[in-house]
Amino acid sequence: MSFLDSIAAGLALVGNIESFLALFAGVAIGVIGGAIPGMSATMAVALTLPFTFAMQPITGILLLLGVYKGGIFGGSIPAILIKTPGTPASSATILDGYPMAEKGEAGRALGMALWASCTADVISNLSLILFAGWLASFALSFGPPEFFTLILFSLTIIAGVSGESLLRGALSALLGLLLATIGLDLVYGTNRFTFGDPNMMGGLNFIAVLIGLFAIPEILAMVWNPTAHVGKARSLGKNWVSFAEYRRSFKSIVRGSFIGVFLGSIPGIGAAPSAFLSYSEARRTSKNKENFGKGEIEGVAAAEAGNNGVAGATLIPLLALGVPGDVITAIIIGAFMIHGLQPGPMMFILNVDIIYGLFIGLIVSSVFLFLIGSVAIRGFKYVADIPKRILIPAVLVLCIYGVFAVNNNIFDVGVMFVMGWVGYLMVRYHIPAAPFLIAFILGPLLEDNFRQSMLMSGSDPMILLRGPITWFFWTLTVLTVIAIARAGVRAVRGAAVLSGDLDD
Amino acid sequence: MTQRQVQMRLGTGALLVAIFLIIYAIPQWVSSPSNVGNIILSPLFWPYALAGFTGLAGLGLIFSGVRMAPDGPRVDAPCDTPGLAWLRLAGMAAIMVVTMVLLPRLGMVLTCMLVFLASAFLVRTRHPVTAVVCAVIIPLVLYAFFAHIAGVAIPQGEILRLP
After folding, report:
1. Where is the DUF112 domain (chain A) (predicted)?
2. Does the beta-carbon distance from B33 to A190 stay under 8 Å?
């Protein structure tokens, strides 16, 4: 199928009012969800997922992608107006956004955040379109040993960079892998931790684990401290961003977008490091570097470009390799699976219409983001006024309905509650949840590819080193572990020296 | 709780989980056919390998915890009244247990109405009337969507049967 044929097939699939309506609704839900402090883009995507079961695959996935895109931008609104990032990725936006709001220039900061977000979004989507197909064609030559080493590398980097320490991330990933062993054995069909219960034989339901890990802990945190997330919203002020200011910040926006694209395409790094790196690069190269941290509009632009640049790029490993780049794409992979689709290189051959339909939808989502974002900036006051102590019980009820709807099974609701407490314990003990969830999803794939490799080679482990691709991933894995371990040792030494100095 | 305490508790917990898995849980709850020629292909191999790595991660956490300064800053979630907060958490746990008991008996809609009310009053909502209204409307709207649009068979109890 030629490129033009693929685009035509994609257009035929999404060229209807239903798809665009879903995308529009998704962006709106995402912006609102991201803007509510205490919710997050992740929770918004997780809670929207059950509503996609009844939809066509493309419509449901577009809805979720809209929520994702909207959620990332929405997080910047409370970051600027009440100094509370709606998503972790918006933390860098506070650095200059909130000082601007204090000076009565919140409208200007939010306007720049929107323009930078949309520009970064377009660049990120174009990068996805350019690189995903190329990477997928390369990945077509992967066999089980190559996939095993790729997934191992992805898990290593996710465990290493998504928390405060490599060991806690590794523990989180190992627990996720252990949980994924529940059910019937993949090769022999024997029981593993099923306790004779038929509900356990198919393994734990992914949606129940996901919503349990990401929505219920927020509810429990609210129960622990019901007055958290209470902040006073600043007024928007009379000044709005001008085209001259956008042009002045354009270099930082483009740089931040490419930083986002690069970091987003590596599984596990996510939007927050990208936003901070983009911000620090903008500060290093700016003529107004002394204003950074005091309300510099270029700082807002760089931070927002950094975090939105990630949004399209995280779909590169998802679509091309079937490996989720972050937690939200892990949820989206769940949506693909529910609709009987398996993301990965074969999807570029078997479901090319869906792939190009998604590309078209993503481009359109940038336009929707601009339109909805402009309205959301002015409407934030109403979102901020939603009483959290009403919102949280509503989220709980939504979780119960959503999880039940997956399999029509009350057992799954129990799994969600149990996983919610596990997730809450993880939050309290500073264990990152992302490696747990991604390991839970990739666990069966990792084990399956490992055992297939062993079957292929007659149990000779040397098959895992059979060619340049496996060597490449092993090298990356070892380098990642060394780099993260060295950073950890330095941090511990630094803390020890600091506490020694304080003692003296 | 300091960083050191977090690290030590996590390490000890991981080590205990690994020992429990290796000594009791895997031999007891993972079955393998007797004719598997190679241990690598056995259904037991993957759980044993993961339990081993969990133990190693636990040891690593304990080792790094020992090297941390004993009097670091506290990292607990802030709360003004920890006693009440623990009570509220226990209340939430009770709501979840009761939900599981009531769901097959009262049905999804009535149970969710009660769950909504109980959790809203547990977090001491300042809008009791809104809470009651939302407690009735939200489960009904969700029922309408899932039962009539998504085609999900939402469980109905003996007391309330909805169309």
Report:
1. 21-437
2. yes
